[in-house]
Each structure stands twice: as C-alpha cells, then as structure tokens.
Amino acid sequence: MKTIHLFEDHIYLISNHSVARNPMFSSPSMQNYFKMKMEKYLLPISDIIAYNFNDNEFQILVKLKKRDDFCSHYLLSQKNVIPETEIPETTYIFSQAMGNLQVSFVKHFNFKHKRSGTLVASRFGRKLVETENEMDDLVEKLNKGIERPHYSGIWVNEIMKVKKSMTSEWLYREDCRRETRCVEGYLNVRLTNLGDSFKILPPYRLPSTNNFFFHQIFKIFRQKPAP
Asked: Which of 16, 71, 81, 91 can bridge 124 by disulfide, Cβ–Cβ 3.0-4.6 Å?
C-alpha cells in the first residue's frame, strides 16, 4: 500500500523527480544549493540518514523527530497560532517543509538557467522503511549513487547531465567520526541503534475524515510496551 501519512520517530525514504526527466542537477553547484536548502528545511524536523542527488531525481532517507520538535518548529514559523489547538498533523508540517525546499530550488534553477515553468513533480514520494535490513540496503544504494528505475517520458539533455551523483557517502567514512558536521542533524546508522523505530510500525495512511483523531489513537497505541 502506498505511504500517505508520516509519523514521528519513524524512517521514510523521501524522493521526487523532474518532469520528463529534465536534468535538474545540472552542475555541482545545483547539488550544493539543494543540499543547503535540504538542511535548512528538513533538519529542524528530521535527522538525515542518507541522500542521493542524481541527474533528474533526489532521494533522502530521514528519521522524523518527535512531535514536540514538529510543534516547536511550526510555532516558530507561523504567526497567530494557538498552541495545542491549531498545530496541524506531522504530515502537513513535513509536507510544508518539502514544499518550501522544492520551490526555493526551482526558483534558483530557473533563475540560473533563464527558464520558467515546472521543474519537479508537484508531489514528493514518501515510503515507510519497515525493517533494519531495508534501511541498511537503502543507505548502501544511496551512498553508491544508484538511481531508481527510470520514469516514463524520457527527455535527457546530455550537455546538462551531471555524470556524478552527490551522496551521503562522506557520512559513513571512518574519518567522518571526527568531523562536527557528522553529528549536527545527520545520523550515521552504523553508529546508532534504531531498532525501536521498527518495533511498532505506523499505518500507511489514515481515514481522510478523521486524520487527527486516528493520529492521536496511534500515538497512544505506540506507547504501549511491545509484546
């Protein structure tokens, strides 16, 4: 079943691609710009485990932070909000951050290449990671720069195409343990036990008319000791 809603303390693969496979990472500077915006918008509400920016797509493996982090981030970014009564669901807050990330990148890309119009698919993909083995496999693939299966509607500009992916391989090097950037918002799963993230898995989606209600029920259920 397709993942729709996002839950705190769980791990998700976040991804999107350009329309018609238009190469959006046309240069290392574009990759660096996207990484900067990724850190700005996603680190307040998630830890980044791995990523891969490759030609016409991005893939980001994240562990969502706790609900309190989402609430604090939302209150800081919004005005005239009554705490505990007007704070939306985690899915909405994360989607808002992804929207800001994608819009800021597209504006920068269009400005640099003197173009206009759509660049990325309107909605980002999200997939619940259900086991440690799946997580480890994704980390390995992302760090190697492996692309996902191609999308339909191929249009590739070989002049703009970047031959080398930007990945999180640096995060998993032995010498990275001595670097500050390895502990500020990034999460090396080789050094951290994330087994609790897989003990009780959340649903893929919630009923559309009672999202908030069922979200609260799931939070109570998740707090029960695992059998």
From this structure: 16
